[in-house]
Amino acid sequence: MSQSHLPVPVPLNDIPSSIAELLDEEERWEFSILELEAATHKRPLSYLGLKIFSAFGVCEFLNCTEATLRSWLQVIEANYHASNSYHNSTHAADVLHATAYFLRKDRVKGSLDQLDEVAALLAATVHDVDHPGRTNSFLCNAGSDLAILYNDTAVLESHHAALAFQLTVRDSKCNIFKNMEWTQFRTLRQAIIDMVLATEMTRHFEHVNKFVNSINKPMSSEGSDCEGQASIRNSPENRLLIKRMLIKCADVANPCRPLELCIEWAGRISEEYFAQTDEEKRQGLPVVMPVFDRNTCSIPKSQISFIDYFITDMFDAWDAFASLPGLMEHLAENYKYWKNLDEMRCKSLRPPPPPCPS
After folding, report:
1. Mean pLDDT score of the chain, rounded to an integer?
2. Where on this chain does Zn(2+) 2 bind (predicted)?
3. Are 115 and 189 spatial neighbours (Cβ–Cβ below 8 Å)?
4. CB atoms within 10 A of CB 230
């Protein structure tokens, strides 16, 4: 879409009341990004971004105007693919929402400075920009231009980070960094790149283990007073680990959302993976995720495996640090939901309707 046809998000004080009312709920974990998606005609990122960035003083920190920030959000959102069922600007807005929620938690807030916060919010916003709806393995197997450019290494994550900066500095109207002092910009840029690259799943266990060993274990050891705990958290190396863990958890928080949101996201990611498997078969490429064959897949089984393999340990560790009892309750409830479906041998997102009385 050419930029001129994009609906322009209006300044915060001119937002339509239906959207403003939804945004009033933005600080709650139960906030429904899908309602915002519908109300904004699939432009949730620009509106939510304005609201959250204003709450965190991002314009003041970057020394840029709200108009510049608005143009930037619009350009970034325009470079997400609305045709992707999962990796679109609603997912980016969802990750931004979770990131802001985590940044407001006392222990997270007490560990990071404002540059870290701004880096996290910007990284969440851009972390999947221009995602093609296919995985790194697919791009490497298909010999795509991006895979060749990035030597088959963290292909998508490298692309998201690089493109985010290209789009930003290309036009002064949306260059949110143009008034920053150079050394501060370099530090911010480094932090954003590091967080976007941390969303690549091949290093998932390495990131989680480092966080547990460097932060959780020393903090829970006997006799560690508040001051000692703060010094553990606030070293530059450990702030790096906290920011990586924060964006990783925000990126895959779907199983910790209220059940209805969890079910909808499970349907969306499954559809994207089915489409990839279909294309791999059509093109004679290796099928990277054979369980995501739309004719045979059990969505409950795939969700159970994902939670068991990636989610439980990571969120246990993040909860021990940030204290997120509500999320852990949702996770337990959602896990039980998928388990029940699986025990009924149901392969779909929802249980079959009860049989009609004859």
Report:
1. 94
2. 128
3. no
4. 13
3-state secondary structure of 325: helix
Other CB atoms within a 10 A radius of the CB of residue 182 amount to 8
Give the residue ranges of the annotated binding site for AMP.
87-91, 128, 251, 303
- The CB density around residue 141, as the number of other CB atoms within 10 Å, is 18
The dihedral through the CA atoms of 101, 103, 108, 110 has a sign that is: negative
pLDDT beneath 50, residues of the chain: 1-6
Domain boundaries, the chain: 12-199, 253-351
- The domain 12-199 is placed in CATH, from the list 2.30.30.100, 1.20.120.910, 1.10.1300.10, 1.20.1250.20, at 1.10.1300.10
- The pTM of this model reads 0.94
The catalytic residue positions are 87
User: 91 near 205, Cβ under 8 Å?
Assistant: no
> In Å, how far are 219, 220, 233 from 223, measured between CA atoms?
9, 9, 16
